[in-house]
Write a structure and sequence with these properties.
The chain is mainly α. The protein has helices at 4-20, 25-35, 44-51, 59-69, 73-76. The chain has five helices and no strands.
Length: 83
Protein backbone atom coordinates (compact mmCIF):
# COMPACT_ATOMS: atom_id res chain seq x y z
CA UNK A 1 0.00 0.00 0.00
CA UNK A 2 1.29 3.44 -0.89
CA UNK A 3 1.71 5.80 2.04
CA UNK A 4 1.31 9.56 2.02
CA UNK A 5 5.11 9.80 2.28
CA UNK A 6 5.42 7.65 -0.87
CA UNK A 7 3.09 10.00 -2.74
CA UNK A 8 5.08 13.03 -1.58
CA UNK A 9 8.34 11.36 -2.64
CA UNK A 10 6.89 10.57 -6.05
CA UNK A 11 5.67 14.15 -6.36
CA UNK A 12 9.07 15.56 -5.45
CA UNK A 13 10.82 13.37 -8.03
CA UNK A 14 8.24 14.29 -10.67
CA UNK A 15 8.58 18.01 -9.92
CA UNK A 16 12.38 17.80 -10.18
CA UNK A 17 12.28 16.01 -13.54
CA UNK A 18 9.79 18.52 -14.95
CA UNK A 19 11.80 21.47 -13.60
CA UNK A 20 15.00 20.01 -15.08
CA UNK A 21 13.34 20.28 -18.49
CA UNK A 22 12.27 23.89 -17.75
CA UNK A 23 8.61 23.04 -18.34
CA UNK A 24 5.68 24.56 -16.50
CA UNK A 25 2.96 22.28 -15.15
CA UNK A 26 0.73 23.36 -18.03
CA UNK A 27 3.41 22.60 -20.65
CA UNK A 28 4.04 19.20 -19.11
CA UNK A 29 0.31 18.45 -19.04
CA UNK A 30 0.02 19.26 -22.76
CA UNK A 31 3.04 17.12 -23.64
CA UNK A 32 1.86 14.17 -21.52
CA UNK A 33 -1.63 14.39 -23.04
CA UNK A 34 -0.14 13.74 -26.48
CA UNK A 35 1.17 10.36 -25.27
CA UNK A 36 -1.83 9.41 -23.12
CA UNK A 37 -4.15 6.77 -24.53
CA UNK A 38 -7.04 7.60 -22.18
CA UNK A 39 -10.18 9.56 -22.81
CA UNK A 40 -9.40 12.67 -20.77
CA UNK A 41 -6.30 14.79 -21.32
CA UNK A 42 -4.01 15.73 -18.47
CA UNK A 43 -4.85 19.07 -16.92
CA UNK A 44 -2.44 21.38 -15.13
CA UNK A 45 -4.31 20.72 -11.90
CA UNK A 46 -3.74 16.94 -12.32
CA UNK A 47 -0.01 17.51 -12.55
CA UNK A 48 -0.12 19.83 -9.55
CA UNK A 49 -1.94 17.19 -7.47
CA UNK A 50 0.70 14.59 -8.39
CA UNK A 51 3.59 16.95 -7.64
CA UNK A 52 2.14 17.88 -4.25
CA UNK A 53 1.68 14.24 -3.30
CA UNK A 54 -2.09 14.54 -3.01
CA UNK A 55 -2.89 12.04 -5.76
CA UNK A 56 -1.03 9.29 -7.57
CA UNK A 57 -1.61 8.61 -11.28
CA UNK A 58 -3.24 5.41 -12.43
CA UNK A 59 -1.02 3.02 -14.46
CA UNK A 60 -1.93 4.41 -17.89
CA UNK A 61 -1.30 7.99 -16.76
CA UNK A 62 1.94 6.96 -15.08
CA UNK A 63 3.12 5.43 -18.36
CA UNK A 64 2.34 8.66 -20.25
CA UNK A 65 4.20 10.67 -17.59
CA UNK A 66 7.26 8.44 -17.84
CA UNK A 67 7.20 8.42 -21.65
CA UNK A 68 6.94 12.21 -21.72
CA UNK A 69 9.89 12.59 -19.37
CA UNK A 70 11.89 9.86 -21.10
CA UNK A 71 12.41 7.91 -17.88
CA UNK A 72 11.56 4.42 -16.72
CA UNK A 73 8.82 4.03 -14.16
CA UNK A 74 11.31 2.94 -11.51
CA UNK A 75 12.93 6.40 -11.67
CA UNK A 76 9.72 7.84 -10.23
CA UNK A 77 8.76 4.86 -8.06
CA UNK A 78 12.19 4.15 -6.60
CA UNK A 79 11.15 4.43 -2.94
CA UNK A 80 8.11 2.14 -3.02
CA UNK A 81 7.25 -1.18 -4.55
CA UNK A 82 3.48 -1.16 -5.01
CA UNK A 83 0.48 1.13 -5.24
Amino acid sequence: MMTDADKVGFGNRLAKLVADKHWTEAEFARKASKLFRGTQDFRRCDISLYMRGIQFPDPSRLKAICDTLGVEEKALRQKFAST
